Amino acid sequence: MLSWSFPWVFLLLPLPWLAYRFLPPYRTSRDSVRAPFFERLITVTGQKPGPGSVVLRRVLSQQVWLLIAWLLVVTSLAKPIWLEDPIEQTQSARDLMIAVDLSGSMAETDFVTPEGERIDRLTAVKQVLTEFVAAREHDRLGLIVFGSAPYLQVPFTDDHRTWLQLLDETQVAMAGQSTMMGDAMGLAIKMFETSDVENRMLIVLSDGNDTGSRVPPIEAAKIARQKDITIYNVAIGDPETEGNEALDLEALEAASDVTGGATFIASDREGLADAYTAIDELEPEAFDTLSFRPRHTLHHYPIMALVAVTLLQVLAHLILGLRRRSQPAASHA
Known about the structure:
The protein is an alpha/beta fold. The protein has helices spanning 15-22, 38-45, 60-77, 121-134, 160-168, 181-191, 217-226, 249-258, 269-282, 300-332; strands at residues 2-4, 80-83, 87-92, 94-101, 111-112, 118-119, 140-146, 150-157, 199-206, 229-236, 262-266, 287-292, 295-297. Strands 8-7-4-9-10-11 form a six-stranded mixed sheet, with helices on both faces. A three-stranded antiparallel sheet has the order 1-2-13. The chain has a two-stranded antiparallel sheet with strand order 3-12. Strand 10 (229-236), helix 8 (249-258) and strand 11 (262-266) form a beta-alpha-beta unit. Residues 329-333 have low confidence and may be disordered.
């Protein structure tokens, strides 16, 4: 679609006519020779004398050229722009960090697939996360793995395929045997410092209690609240387990409650899937749709046309002048 940046410039179109109509004509004086025998010359030549002033008039081609030139100049000054069809782009409105526990207890094969196959907890987490991520195509995802220490596996990215590939490459105990959950939350909070979106969410998957983080989970949660980060904890395994592998549900619930999140218990694969379904309902996918129309300025085309018309006008005058010069010589011959 054609548009104009300065359409008011077209108000200048009648300016040459107004100048012709209301401004006095341009006058110039030239030297002349007075002949004392002027009357005799008139008698001899038989010509009728006329006024001394001469009014130069443009030929039709000159008038047409001036009209076209002025129209092209005004059109260029109005700055025509060609607007293409609108293009919509979807942009993430949420940054989602997922922290996965890789401690030794994640090797327990107490999860069962829909086909009846027994799998370890980490494999179940990978399967359910694959389904979860597929439904959040517009979220930027990050991945932290933790054991004896937290490690950033994937920074925030829109490339979900790479994110899933790097998740699939994780193995039990590759980050150590312990469960430094609070430190994992702290690393996630640090990563969110580079985020410029308002909607920030952290999901922590763990099958044990914190085993000595420098920052306890509850303290990390308080910092997260100050940074507007919502924490959802997913406790994996049997909540009745005792000893080092016992789930500290009280600490998990306290950490999530501080930030306005929630804690879910997933004792089997179905419970794990239900936890992510509940998170989906609490935190529906968020995205912004941006629309823009490509713009191409066209003001140079009238200028190019003006140059072309001017060159044609000059060429026509040159050809006409050459013909006039050749006519006397031809008649004399």
